[in-house]
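step: validate -> pass
step: tokenize input -> pass
step: predict -> running
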Amino acid sequence: MSIYKSLFAPLLLAASAANAQPPAYEMTLLPHFDYVGGINDLGQMTGSVLDANNDRLPVVWTPDATKHFRFLGMPGDSASAINNAGQVAGEHQFAPGQWRAAIFDNGRIQDLGGPDGFSSIGRAINAGGQVAGALGNDPLKPHAFLYANGQMADLGAFSGDRSDAFGINDTGQVVGTSLVLGVGGAPNTWRAFEYSDGTMNQLDLGNAFSIARDINNAGQVVGELAPSDEDGVHAFLYQDGRLHDLGNLGGNTTSALSINERGDIVGYGTTGPGDTVHGFIYVDGKIVDVNTLLVAPDHWQITRASAINEEGQIVSLACRTDSQYDCMHALLSPVPEPAPPVLWSGGLLLFAAWWVLRRPGERSAGARREQLGRIGRHGRMRVHPPCFSLARGACASQPRIFS
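step: predict -> pass
step: emit ->
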């Protein structure tokens, strides 16, 4: 290892350690939302608000806009997810009493098709406008669907003939859950699946009840599983055929709801025997209660973290700690952190070391030029100690190291 690498290594390790910590979050309350479905990387959120008749209206909320809310459809419609192009997946009433999966796109409402007379809903949308959701071929036996290339495809189901889809990535992989019939008197149970290349694949999670909630472009899948009736419900990450239990917040129930491309995961979990529920973020192999990261909670407590974007913003549900049943949706935004003091002091030390350890030829040539210049001006050489002051004018009569 060169001497330069030896000097830089501690500084790089310090920077890496600083970045490994979860950020602090500031909370923005969203009092008008009745429901929030998703968030894109621009900070736009979609969901619903209640009108004067207490009917739900689907909306898109844009931060820092003159008019924060943009209304999408009509009362009773729903909006579940939004991509970076502003396309929203949800459902629209195309006929009296019949809601069908739809894309709301710049004032247009696109019917995603499906059998006449049956309802459907879009739950997730990717960058290319592909949509995953649930299709009611039979009201008692809904099936997961994928909408791509202008066509709605029924993804089928396991032996229980029921399925639902909750997440989709940009390559068109879909995740969800499907019912499996018990064999030999065993109870029916739901099993997480991943759908790709025309095949619904059961995740290798054993015989546990399981639901896959989201998938990123690296193929990382998150959700929850229940190993047995006694062991509670566990949030999981499934990657490269391997299951990772995310841990818990002190209780026996956790659920992972969303994952971004960095692998940051959000969800909720119980904190102990009293079944108090808190939102969590899973970063760098650690599960953290997001309430411990809030800059100014002000008597609010995050009980659910439901979606995270590439900027680290988290859609959440916040409830008052000083009053019962007083809850509203909130946006948690990472607070930019200044560089740790060790990085500033380390930078100064490295610069000083570079000055001393420059190539000998460079140092000697510079010294000779300086020496000749001083002899030419003064007839003799004057030696000054180097000045390291950052104050303006402090080094006016001396050779400056810093300008």
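step: describe -> The chain has a mean pLDDT of 82.
step: cleanup -> pass
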